[in-house]
Amino acid sequence: MKTLLSMLLFLWFNPQQTPDLIQGKGFKGYVLGKDRFVLTTIENQKERYTPVEEDVLLAEQILKEDLAELNIPMTDQSGDCPVIHRNLKKYIRQYVGYVNTAGEKVIWINFLWKSGTDNQTLTDEVVIVLDGCSHYWNIKVNLDKRLLYDLSVNGSA
Predict the structure, then answer these.
(1) Model confidence over 57-107: pLDDT tens digits?
(2) Inside any domain, residue 124
(3) Do β-strands 27-32 and 91-100 pair in parallel, antiparallel, or remain unpaired?
(4) Is residue 111 part of a domain?
(5) Cα–Cα distance, 54 to 37 (Å, whole number)
(6) Looking at the 3D structure of the chain, how many domains does it have?
(7) Is residue 43 in some structural domain?
(8) Residue 30 to residues 3, 7, 82, 83, 143: CA-CA distances in angstroms?
(9) Contacts of 52-55 spanning 24+ positions with Cβ under 8 A
(10) Is residue 9 situated within a structural domain?
């Protein structure tokens, strides 16, 4: 009984959120909750929050509407490197939510090329890949302003 009580207390004070899988038309991704440690942040961050399905759907809508224009320079997207706004269905995502100092919700989305991606790793931690060109990239979406910004495409080695 004492062991069971200890385990319950441990789980109560050390929650390990299981990332939620969210799928929609043309996308699939994992929400990493506010209690999950991540090695990323946003400018003027006040706190973390856990995005709900409606937040992710809105972020995906903003992404589809505005990415092509933001991606006009098409940095690291030539040769064998895909043009990101033409290949959105070929990426799996990780969603991390923040609230900035103005009280606005921002979702940082990490994109990883589906082939060769280990889904178990996606549920455990933010996957950081060096190089790999546009097979790996990330972006921020301010849900309150409906603003897509801070596009970062990996370089080619």
Answers:
(1) 999 999 999 999 999 999 999 999 999 999 999 999 999 999 999 999 999
(2) yes
(3) parallel
(4) yes
(5) 23
(6) 1
(7) yes
(8) 33, 27, 22, 23, 18
(9) 53/20, 53/22, 55/97, 55/105, 55/107, 55/143
(10) no
Distance between CA atoms of residues 125 and 122, nearest Å: 6
pLDDT tens-digit map of 120-142: 778 888 999 999 999 999 999 99
Q: Structural domain of residue 53, as residue ranges?
A: 18-153
Give the pTM.
Answer: 0.87
C-alpha dist (Å) from residue 2 to 5, 7, 11, 13, 98? 5, 9, 14, 17, 38
H helices present in the chain, as ranges? 2-13, 53-70, 119-124
Number of residues in the chain:
157
